[in-house]
Amino acid sequence: MDRRTWLQQLSALGLLSLSSGWKFMEDNLLQRPILGTSEWLPAVGVGTWQTFDVGDITPEREPLKAVLKTLVENGGSVIDSSPMYGQSEKVVGDLSSELNLASKLFVATKVWTRGEREGIAQMNQSFALLRRQKIDLMQIHNLVDWQTHLKTLRGWKEQGRVRYIGITHYTESAYDAMEQVMLREPLDFIQVNYSLLSRKAADRLFPLAQEKKISVLVNQPFEEGALFQRVKGKVPPLWAEEFNCHSWGQFFLKFILSHPAVTCVIPGTSKPQHMLDNLGAGLGRLPSEKQRDDMVKFINT
To answer: Given this model, what pLDDT does residue 5 score?
Structure first.
């Protein structure tokens, strides 16, 4: 079943209202704890790489406003950006203010430069673009000059300018370096790639994150669309219904969410109907360990 068919069936059953911003009417979105705290996060969010990098033209921004409304109205809150992502921070700041959603979002962004002064200047710019007095999670993008920025971020966390700090990367080749930082430094979050096709994070980084009480954001869950290409023209196996899976997007995301170390997955999208479908992965049952193995075997064929 593709996304469109699934959404049509939900509408026919009265489980969502298309006239009220694509809103689920039953069940609650899965939440996971931010380790070491009493705070919980919705387990499905949205990334902004490429998708939110648009100009000031209204037709370009309207679908993104609908994405943000869909996220929040259906129990989500996490949105992730970066200065690397073009206009994305500005678009998030503008649209969340227009929609009066700023207080309902868990905003994560990054520092992506070298040098203490340059890092401080870039992060201050992010505060301005995002229209935030406080940023929920500031991350060091791809470990760039992490020693310098981590020192700044510790101070800012003590001052209350940022609530949580972390590091990110998107390639398995960086796992050695990430592991060393996790072993040596107190962190609140890591952000890393993990999917049905890229599973090494579960072998190395996830156990260490659980041991160190570091929460995990997952990027690149769809392998930049490669997973959808792999299953093009096919339908999910019937046994996927056992864990309430109604589309390929949910198949891929439920595999990720079924790992207990994962706090939140942040697939990017510019389409509200895809945002709704992604959120559906956080509803209902998740795959068991055996079903996870079956999913890997299935995708490898």
So the answer is: 57
